[in-house]
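Q&A log
Question type: sequence-to-structure
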Amino acid sequence: VKTERLCSGGVTPWGTIVTCEETTAAGDANGDGYQDVGWHVEIDPATNKIKEYGNDKQEKLWAMGRMSHENVALKNDSLT
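Response status: OK
Response body:
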């Protein structure tokens, strides 16, 4: 997975880091149906890799939406 302009991240209650791509430059170069940049990305600090979610491929957090921003904050209340 190619990422672009990651510079800050928030630590999750489960110990991973969620960071954000700080650009929304348009394009779907890999043909997967999603714009390539502007997403949240979850990093596993134990492996220094983008997390996999049960399908044997690293993916961005598509469900969290797409926008140009720097960081996220997560609260351990299962809501925020």
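Response note: The mean pLDDT is 86.
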